[in-house]
Structure formats: structure tokens, C-alpha cells
Specification:
By secondary structure, the chain is α/β, with parallel strands linked by helices. The protein has 6 helices and 11 strands. It has one domain (about 1-185, about 215-250): Survival protein SurE-like phosphatase/nucleotidase (Stationary-phase Survival Protein Sure Homolog, Chain: A). Helix 4 links the parallel strand 6 and strand 7 (about 160-165).
């Protein structure tokens, strides 16, 4: 059992998924710290707040709400609140909805985990897939989460990597095995902007992803999740396109 785990998320400190994550962490560590956003921060990716102060409110022993992003929460916890005794592991989630494919770039859940990884702490992002927002199968992540994390800790992973775990939209007993997958292309085809008019006559806008089916490939995270597996994908900051790098290197002077 670990001495100390830090929890964060992007759905907010009062989110049901964070309650599930706290129950998972209770099976893994003697001491649990929670530093999470006061409000929903879905879609903020790896953002940290450089141009405004962070407001922190104590919500109980080792429990803090932050008016900021998941990245802010990870940084504030590791570099300040827990600086004297840093966490041995950061868990981010459990997100309401899967984090797969291209959308990982935008995910605040993944962003919180990757910020922790950047600061030298092993980190795992966890998400629960669903098809009906009103009936998220939280019991799957709750039942399988602790054993999944234990197995991954026993295997280990590199310091420049965080892990992204997605639980399928199935009852715990029907979930498939823990399966390694690559980040696939995902299902985002573009972004739509919807314009409305407020009661005072001023325009405002909503941004939303446009999604649709796309060929994913046999090793993709989406294909593995659709097969009912618990999916783990190792992620890193290095986004260098090796094929493009080689082509540019051949064409540009060195």
C-alpha cells in the first residue's frame, strides 16, 4: 500500500466521479489528498493559470477546492500544499465519459495527469464510458479501478509517460481484460459554432465537437473500448511527427 496519493479531476470537486476515485484510492493508500477544481473544467487540456491568482478553499482535512484548472491543481498540490511530503501517485478522474483518440488533446482529466507527470510524479488518468448521461455505470470503475491501478503499478512505466485508462460501458462482471491500445484518430470530424441571442439582444456562442464514425485500426483505444475491454494507453508530451521530421530534414539545410 502506498503512503500518499493525490486526486484531481476536471469535472469539479463535487463530481460523482471524484467520489468514485476517492473510494478507489482508499484501497491503495494510507493517506489521500484531494485538490480539484471548484467548477467543471472539461476541455481545458493542460492549461495552467499564468495571468490570474489561484483561490483555494479548504473543504476538509487534506481536501481543497481550487478556482483553476486541473493542471493548476496538480501544480499547486505538488509544488506547494504537499511540497514537504509529495504524493507517490496522482490519479485524475474518474471522468464522466471516455477520453479517447484526438479528444485526449483537449481533456482536462488527461491534462491534470500529464502536469503531475511533468512535475516528476507517476500519474494515471481514469475515465468511465457511458451512452446515457443519466445512467453512467460508475459501479464499473468503482469495482475494477483499484485492481487496475495495482496491476499497472506492478508493471511500471517511464518517467516521461502518464497512463490513460478507460473503463467500458458495461457492468463490472462483463468488462473485458486490461488491454494495451494506441491513441487512435478518434471520432472528431470538426468543431461547430452555434450562435444565440441573449435576453438583452447580444450574441453569444457555443462551441461543440462534431463527431462521426471513422476507421480506427485494430490497435486503437476506441476499438478496444468498443470490444468491452479496460483500455490503457501510455501518453507523452513529445508530439514530434517522425515521418514529417525526416522529410523536412532531407529538404532543409542542417
Amino acid at each position: 500500500m502506498l503512503d500518499r496519493i493525490l486526486l484531481t479531476n476536471d469535472d469539479g470537486i463535487d463530481a460523482q466521479g471524484l467520489k468514485v476515485l476517492e473510494a478507489i484510492a482508499a484501497e491503495l493508500a494510507r493517506e489521500i489528498w484531494i485538490v480539484a477544481p471548484e467548477h467543471d473544467q472539461s476541455g481545458v487540456s493542460h492549461a495552467i493559470s499564468l495571468h490570474q491568482p489561484l483561490r483555494v478553499s479548504a473543504r476538509g482535512p487534506r481536501r481543497y477546492g481550487v478556482v483553476g484548472t486541473p493542471g493548476d491543481c496538480a501544480a499547486l498540490a505538488i509544488a506547494h500544499l504537499m511540497a514537504a511530503s509529495p504524493p507517490q501517485l496522482v490519479l485524475s478522474g474518474v471522468n464522466r465519459g471516455a477520453n479517447l483518440g484526438l479528444e485526449n488533446v483537449f481533456s482536462g482529466t488527461v491534462g491534470g495527469a500529464m502536469t503531475a507527470m511533468m512535475l516528476g510524479v507517476p500519474a494515471i488518468a481514469l475515465s468511465q464510458a457511458y451512452t446515457d448521461r443519466a445512467q453512467v455505470p460508475w459501479g464499473t470503475a468503482a469495482a475494477l479501478g483499484a485492481d487496475t491501478v495495482r496491476r499497472l503499478l506492478a508493471i511500471g512505466w517511464g518517467a516521461a509517460t502518464c497512463l490513460n485508462v478507460n473503463f467500458p460501458n458495461l457492468p463490472p462482471g462483463d468488462a473485458g481484460p486490461l488491454t494495451l491500445a494506441r491513441q487512435g484518430p478518434g471520432v472528431v470530424h470538426g468543431i461547430d459554432v452555434f450562435t444565440r441571442t441573449d435576453p438583452r439582444g447580444f450574441e453569444y456562442h457555443w462551441i461543440n465537437f462534431r463527431r462521426g464514425p471513422r476507421e480506427q485500426g485494430p490497435e486503437s483505444d476506441i476499438a478496444a473500448l468498443e470490444a468491452g475491454c479496460i483500455v490503457v494507453t501510455p501518453l507523452c508530451y513529445d508530439r514530434t511527427d517522425e515521418a514529417a521530421y525526416a522529410a523536412l530534414a532531407a529538404a532543409l539545410p542542417r
